[in-house]
From TrEMBL:
The YdhG-like domain, residue ranges: 21-111
UniProt name for this protein: YdhG-like domain-containing protein
Domain of life: Bacteria
Length: 118
């Protein structure tokens, strides 16, 4: 069953290790609540949300869930790093024992939606 490629975000979450599912469910709900017009799907074998282009997505790693979004600025990376999250150019790692920084993620999703609408 692990060899089957998920066709939906829910399948991706359901087929992931239990310790990662809570984070992914919260991310899914946050993205969908913040941008209700976003369409979910699987691209590059991971959950991706689109709204006038790619909005956001997430993937599973061995010890964390990675949230990806193009609107991640240096300022926001600094804020998230200070809160204990590891960031990359366009990604934020959420360890299985961390909560989602909902306020910051909501701002990022809103900003990305605005950028996509241009």
């Amino acid at each position: 069953m692990a060899d089957l490629k998920p066709k939906t975000v829910d399948e991706f979450i359901d087929n992931s290790p239990e310790k990662s599912q809570g984070i992914m469910i919260k991310l899914k709900k946050l993205i969908e609540a913040t941008e209700p017009n976003a369409e979910s799907g699987i691209s590059w074998n991971v959950p991706i949300y689109k709204c006038n282009g790619i909005l956001a997505g997430f993937s599973l790693a061995k010890k964390h869930v990675s949230f990806g979004i193009d609107s991640l600025t240096e300022e926001m990376r600094k804020i998230l790093n200070e809160k204990g999250y590891k960031t990359g150019k366009k990604t934020i790692q959420i360890k299985f024992n961390q909560d989602i920084p909902s306020k910051e993620f909501k701002l990022l999703i809103q900003e990305q939606a605005k950028l996509n609408a241009l």
